[in-house]
Amino acid sequence: MGLGPIERRRFLQGLLASAGLGAVGTAPMLVPQARAEDGEPRFLIVFGCFGGASMLDCFLPVDTSEAFSGSRGTVFSHSVVQPEGSNLRCPYRTTPYNFLVDHGNESLVLGFQASSVNHFEAQRRVMNGRGAFEGRTLPEAVAATWGANMPLPNVTMGRAGFAEPGTDPALDSRYVAEVVTNPVTFALSTSGHAGVIENGSRALQDPDARAELVALARSVRDEHLESSSGFAQTFPSSRLRQTLLSRRTSGEVAIEEARLIQELLFVPDLGDIFPLSQYGLAASDEADLVLDYLHDAWPTSTSGIADDPLQAQAALAYLLIRTGTSAAVTLTDPGTDGFLAFDQSHFDHANGQADHWDRALDTASRLIQLLKQAEWHDKDGQATGTSYWDRTMIVFATEFGRDKFDNGRDATGHVMNNGLLVVSPMVEGNQALGEVDPNNGYICGYDLETGEPTPFDGVTPGEDPLYDDERLPPGETTIYGALSKVLGVDFEGRETIPAIEA
Amino acid sequence: MWWWLACAPVPGDTSFAPSETAVVVDTEVPADSAPGETGETGGSSSPATSTRADLKLKRWRQISLDLQGALELRDDQVCNEAGLYDCATLNVVTLGGVSSDNGVFEPLEPGATAGLAMERMVLQACWNRFRQDLEGPALVYQNVAHGSTALTEGEGEAWLTALYRRMLSRDPLDEEVAALLDLHPSVVASGGDNGDWEVLTCFAVGTSTEALTY
Q1: Position B154 confidence tier, pLDDT thresholds 50, 70, 90
Q2: How far is it, in rounded angstroms, from Cα A471 to Cα A452?
Q3: Which of A178, A199, A204 is the mutation pick for testing B, counting most B CBs within 10 A?
């Protein structure tokens, strides 16, 4: 059953009283004033929702009062709430409700038909649009379009298929994602010398002197040792060797000159846990601000792992974009168990979906607020009155959906039918393309121009639409093309969904 | 005639015996020949050019083991970020390893930060050995008065020969010795002394593509 009017009112009052996000941070939010159509970078953040984040448990829920029950069980359903003015609704939980209140106008649900129920293959396909653009992943395509002048155009903290490179051999390798295993300490790998040696009285123990001395040593190495040795004469044509040598004079220089070892360090000196100052290191000037929004991004033990690894990923994602380091960043919810995440649905669907949707939405909301308060400056350095968020898209990428029927065991397998959540000021938000059929839990397709749904009329309640039913929603290739267009990525043969364009 | 060795010698081994993974590019050299016996030291013979040039980057474990052997360090003495976090673990994927936590089950192509991550490992390993040798007994940094800025050519050559044998399992060429000796006055001009120069030569040799690939 849905909520009665009094219950709904109490629920909403409780939400207002307990809404945590309204209290975080102190920086003012910029009011969106312009769409990102100025030829300057657009940013992509992919939240890899590992394991099948079912849209029936987020913004396309079936109301319990409408769910079909039959021999297969009951279609998964919820007590549903809908914020005033929102065209989207959600299960009766604080986090999704708050998300719709805060970001509903920029939230778009796209009915989506996956083409695989294998985790890794489905992850690859949702990232590369099933080969839509020569096999480039969407982050690679965005990085290649907007990241030419960025030191690390594409960074992934994802895992498995969400972290795999695409398959376009023509793609410049600098747009292939840099893999980050620990966002807390990643900054430390962006310099060959800073923070390597503890402070002391010797020249090499002075950070500035060490930078100068290492530059001298590198010069001798690269200009003399690398050319005079027999090894150099034996392997002059090695591709690997040429790559390593080339990077020393280009990419690595840019990374060090950008001072990423400080700019990307969001954790301050934590004494015995992270004694930065002892090694001549200091955190980003924005570290305090970041941690106002992402309280658990710090480690509190000598494991070096943040208390909330997803928040740590979000913290690094913010700094990567804010500092002009990256155009595309991929995160992956590591799961409350460290691995399964949404795939916990195999043995506990309700809690697995609720916990991980809440976790992803809450972290995304905090990241959005950080990006909203960061003012975008144009290429001439002039303030624009717009924010980084105005030119950013978050895609909650997932492999597939989950079984539609609750057979009493609360355990679900993989199903190709699902929906994808996209949040961005650059899309026409506050809408769901496709609607859920309470008789079978399937999300239908839609007219790509108008967004009008194509419901499964005539399908017997309790039965699934056939795989070749033309009313099913579009697949990876169309979704990839549509998002590419919004992100300013052009390629031949691109499919689009005009209904999502703001 | 050259040997290109994939692994550094074990601690204390000053012979030129190749490891099992050695790649022979040209004709043989007696396995136990001492430096100079083959007429290689400072030689200028031109080695053959490899037609395959199929070099591979050493992964974190190989780099760490090589540094452990060359500099007589324990596993936990090679490199620790902020003195606490093992560099190889933090950069395991960047350094060619795999990470089940990240779902990376096969090594990836070296990323943009791979060179920097390798430099960090080598620089800290060179420094850690130096710091321990200062406290004594000196195991590696033995030939030079560390606190002085005066360096004779003989002292410098002795150190560089020992360094090359440890890091690359061969003697340095004349050109290499000259280039690294030329680094010394620059180091002193920048406020460093012999000890700093020694560590920097260790860094330069240890981060050469010869040291980092096989």
Answers
A1: very high
A2: 11
A3: A204
- Rounded to whole angstroms, the Cα distance separating B73 from B133 reads 11
* Contact list, B173 vs chain A (CB under 8 Å): 228-230
In chain A the domains, ranked by start, together with CATH numbers, are 5-30+43-183+306-500 (3.40.720.10)
Contacts of A193 in chain B (CB under 8 A): 119-120, 123
Residue A73 has pLDDT above 90, yes or no: yes
Nearest CA-CA partner of B198 in B170, B156, B168 = B156
Q: What are phi and psi of A415, to 5 degrees?
A: -135, 140
Do B55 and A212 make contact, defined as CB atoms within 8 angstroms? no
Cα B39 to the chain's mean position, in Å?
Answer: 23
Q: How confident is the model at residue A462 (pLDDT cuts 50, 70, 90)?
A: very high
- Give strand pairing partners of A405: A75
The tens digit of pLDDT for each residue in B57-114 reads: 999 999 999 999 999 999 999 999 999 999 998 888 889 888 887 778 888 888 899 9
SS3 A412: coil
Q: Residue A467 corresponds to which tokens in the numbers above? A: 């795989």
* CA neighbor of B104 nearest in space, from A168, A163, A120: A163
Contact status, residue A196 vs residue A218, Cβ threshold 8 Å? no
Phi and psi, residue A125, nearest 5°: -70, -35
Q: DSSP letter string over A49-91?
A: ETT---GGGTTSPPBTTT--EETTEEE--B-EE--TT-S--EE
Interchain CB contacts (distance < 8 Å): A and B: 231
What would the pLDDT profile of A247-305 be if each residue is shown by its tens digit? Answer: 999 889 999 999 999 999 999 888 888 899 999 999 999 999 999 999 999 888 878 88
Q: Which residues of A touch B124 (CB under 8 A)?
A: 196-197
Q: Can you say whether the dihedral through the CA atoms of A61, A62, A64, A70 is positive or negative?
A: negative
CA atoms within 13 A on the CB side of A215: 10
Query: In sequence order, which residues have a C-beta less than 8 Å from that of residue A463 and are 6 or more positions away?
Result: A440
Please count the other Cβ atoms lying within 10 Å of the Cβ belonging to residue A3: 17
Q: Which two tokens stand for residue A375?
A: 């003012």
Largest CA distance in chain A: 83
Q: Which residues is A179 bridged to in the sheet?
A: A156
Whether B196 sits inside 8 A of A213 (CB atoms) is yes
pLDDT tens sequence across A132-168:
999 999 999 999 999 999 999 999 998 889 989 999 9
**Residue A409, class by beta-carbon neighbours within 10 Å (0-12 exposed, 13-18 middle, 19+ buried)?**
exposed
Q: How far apart are the first and last CA of chain A?
A: 35
**Crossing angle of helices A309-322 and A345-373, rounded to 10°:** 30
pTM for the model: 0.88
